[in-house]
Amino acid sequence: MNVDVALSGRPHSKAQARWGRLPALGPSTLLSLACVALVLYIGWITLDWLLLSAVPPWANAEFCGTASGACWPFWVEKTRFILFGTYPFDLQWRPMVVCMLLLTLSMATGQMAVCGRWVDVRLLVGSWVAGMIASFVLMAGGVAGLAPVDATRWNGLPILLILSTIALALALPVGVLLALARYQTRHRFMRRAAAAYVEIMRGMPMVTLLFVGVFVLPLTLPKGMAIDPIVAVLIALVFFHAAYFAEDVRSGLLSLPPGQHEAASSLGLGFWQTARLVLLPQAIERSMPALVNSTIGAYKDTSLVVILGLHDLSATARMAFSDVAWGNQALEAYVFVGLWFLLSCSYLSWIGRRLSASATTRAH
Amino acid sequence: MDQKLISPVAQSSPPKKALDISWLDIGAGLALIAVFALVAMNIHSNMVAAGIQPGFSFLTQQAGFDLSESLIPYGASDSYLRAILAGLANTIAVAAASLVVACASGLLVGLLSVSAQAPARLLALGYVELFRNLPKILVLLVIFVAAVNGLPAVRQAITFGPLTISNRAIYLPWLSDDPRNSRWLLASLVAVPAASALWLRRVARRQAQTGVRGTAWPVVIAIAIVVPTALAFVLKAPLVLSWPKLEGFSVGGGVAFSIQFCTVAIALGLYHGAQIAEVLRGGIRAVPAGQIEAAAALGLKRGRITRLIVLPQVLRIIIPPLNNQFVNLLKNTSISIAVGYSDLMSVAGTTINQTFRPLETMLITMSIYLALCLVLAGTLNHWSARIRAREGRGTR
Fold first, then answer.
1. CB A245 within 8 A of CB A171
2. Nearest residue, CB atoms, A341 vs list B126, B134, B285
3. Contact at CB, A32 and B117, closer than 8 angstroms
4. Are B28 and A193 a contacting pair at CB < 8 A?
5. CA distance A7 to chain B (A)
């Protein structure tokens, strides 16, 4: 819904342009001038804060307390902390490799989605599974001569990426299964159960699911078994995102012409073969823009784990500016996190726009 | 959403036999029951091992924690049930406030984004892109930190017209504490909408029967002025305002909106405002240019084009995604726990910490959220179906 075809922002006819001149806001030139003034003002404030009144990176950090602009030494000093938090300093190459790995996998998948040329499914799934296992091994250590690191010290970007990319990668197959269960009509109990699950999940805030993961999930385990909060949150996220993916894929399935299913049946294909060879490839291609949209929402919402005491980027940013040795550099810290999200979400939106553009051209 | 669509499988499958047992269904049902039973047994033994008897009787026990603010009377000696109700009231209050901010910002930015002026469109684009690409929790934390650090302490509270602003709360003058005043407010809040609805219905019926366009909105405005005035005389309400005043370390009088409430309302309002602006822009863009050109060619003025041609068509397009946004906004109020606003989620969190009853507490919390969302979605859908039907008839 949100990702729509990029509009040029130009009204498409003169009458529309005339109508769009907003009588409520006074003469159009006045509005134009006010907007120009506002744009210039915002631009000037940003420039002033970022450069003119800022403390340059090479300056002494002590000036930051008095300067009205940005404190560049803070970024120089604290970037590494915001990215990796309290992970042991000389082992921080490990979270860095994890981030590179997950980013590479995600961007490769995204690129394949944009081009529409996919590698073999088994290779894709295999490399994702290998990437997930490698991430956890690298973060936790304890094998192959890697020093063990307690999960409470997994902070910052790797937590964000693990909880977003891995949760989403695991949620997609669950979502597809749910969509198929809700789409078929042969097994009525499964159909109703899937529908109830999806609707209940979508009627609740993500925070409640995270609470269930952290507080209720450990209770359901047999005595003596414990679960790490990160894994608990990961499981909760998988089950939560799966419901949204299920709806996206199901809308793709519902948009297929009935002839597809009938043709497959008349060829003697069974349900699984029909689903795997005929229905799903087309349905997933059609639901791609919606899936990307859900992915963006889920990726942004991953930062809600800070409520459960997991230290993702916004938490390490808070830790960084709470350092008493520095002044109050809250804005600098949050600007850094905000830039990361702006960049990564813009990339995802770009994929979404490309996909819906190609969907539109296919439809015509 | 797609209930009317029959899946193609249903259309192509042969007619059903009388007894159509699906073994897969039975297997799945049994497996589900087995998993639930195992989980229930584990939960029971874990809770008993921790010395807790599962059950909901704890709800009547004394909660013993205070809330930062509450709409309904609540104190630390009240029960957990009352604490949860207070949290629910706070959730609804903050959702309503965010909704107002979201609609206002969404309307403004949405109109700017279809304006003929390039700078206005640039401004709208920047706003939408900024808030759509940032997590809401980050928006909330930034606004909260900025408000707490940037606004003056209570002792140095600044007064800005009727507003008194400090980094603890924003104060507004309010009707003085008098039962007659609250009775008057309640009576007006019931009487004005009821009278207006009656009048509008009468006008609509007359127009349907005779084709005569009656005066609708001027009368409604008159009702909104006359009825409360008359009620004030009848109920002998003094209608004196109580102004916020600095008294020692706090502000007395007036009505206070805590800084947590305000930041959540503003953050969620701005965040959803961006989404609503996009919905609105899409809706306006979807009105064919020919419609506006034809209306202009008929000599309609811009205001009439907006009201009679553009708005009905835009409404029909934007209402379903708008409803979606409103439900999302309601769900998203649960992030206010991050700044310590005592909403339902935050009361649930405190309850879990105090009683170690996560299962019961989360069951209650999730049911409440689910019920809230279902009720809101149901009401909005019912209401919008009526609007769409009416506008559809109007533009046939």
1. yes
2. B134
3. yes
4. yes
5. 9
Q: Is A205's CB within 8 Å of B362's CB? A: no
Cβ contact A338–B134 (<8 Å): yes
Nearest residue of chain B to residue A257 (CA atoms): B8
Q: In the prediction, which pLDDT does B1 show?
A: 42
Given an 8 Å threshold on Cβ–Cβ distance, is B29 in contact with A189?
yes
State yes or no: pLDDT of A80 exceeds 90.
no
Instruction: Please report the pLDDT score of residue A17 as a whole number.
Output: 63
Q: Both tokens of residue A286?
A: 């059609």
Nearest chain A Cα distance for residue B179, angstroms: 38
Task: Answer yes or no: do B141 and A35 touch at CB < 8 A.
Answer: no
Angstroms from B375 CA to nearest CA on chain A: 11
Q: What is the pLDDT of residues B62-116, one digit of tens each?
A: 877 878 787 788 877 888 888 899 999 999 999 999 999 999 999 999 988 888 7
Span A208-259, pLDDT tens digits: 999 999 998 888 888 778 888 899 999 999 999 999 999 999 998 888 888 8
In this complex, how many residue pairs, one in chain A and one in chain B, have their CB atoms less than 8 Å apart? 235
B contact test, residue of A16, A68, A192, A198 with most B CBs within 10 A? A16
Helices of type H across chain B: 8-12, 23-49, 80-113, 118-132, 136-150, 179-210, 217-235, 259-285, 289-297, 302-304, 311-332, 344-355, 358-394
The residue of chain A with its CA nearest to that of B310 is: A19
B91 min Cα distance to partner chain A (Å): 12
Using alpha carbons, select from A214, A171, A175 the residue that is nearest to residue A305: A214
Residue B67, phi then psi, degrees to nearest 5: -105, 150
Query: B255 or B95: which carries more pLDDT confidence?
Result: B95
- B232 closest CA partner among B173, B186, B177, B197: B186
Nearest residue of chain A to residue B340 (CA atoms) = A307
DSSP letter for B62, please: B
pLDDT (0 to 100) of residue B165: 82
Mean per-residue pLDDT for B205-229? 85
**Are the C-beta atoms of A302 and B333 separated by less than 8 Å?**
no
pLDDT for B13: 56
pLDDT, residue A2, reads: 36
Q: Strand pairing partners for B242?
A: B174
A-chain residues near B374 (CB < 8 A): 203
Query: A208, A248, A251: best mutation site toward chain B, by most B Cβ within 10 Å?
Result: A208
Question: Which is nearest to A206 in space by CA: A309, A307, A289, A310?
Answer: A307
Give which of A358, A335, A332, A312 is closest to A72, Cα–Cα.
A332
| Residues A71/A335, Cβ–Cβ less than 8 Å | no
> What's the gap in Å between the CA of A103 and the closest CA on chain B?
18
Neighbour-count burial for A156-187, b at 16+ CB within 10 Å, e otherwise: bbbbbbbbbbbbbbbbbebbbbbbbbbbbbeb
Closest to A214 measured CA to CA, from A188, A231, A232, A202: A232
pLDDT tens digits for range A156-192: 899 999 999 999 999 999 999 999 999 888 888 888 8
Is the per-residue pLDDT at A11 higher than 70?
Answer: no
User: How much is the pTM?
Assistant: 0.85
The rounded distance, in Å, linking the Cα atoms of B365 and B371 is 10
Lowest-pLDDT choice from A4-8, A52-56, A333-337, B204-208? A4-8
Tokens encoding B18: 């009388």
**Residue B179 token pair:** 């039962």
Predicted complex ipTM = 0.86
At B12, the pLDDT band (50, 70, 90 cuts) reads low
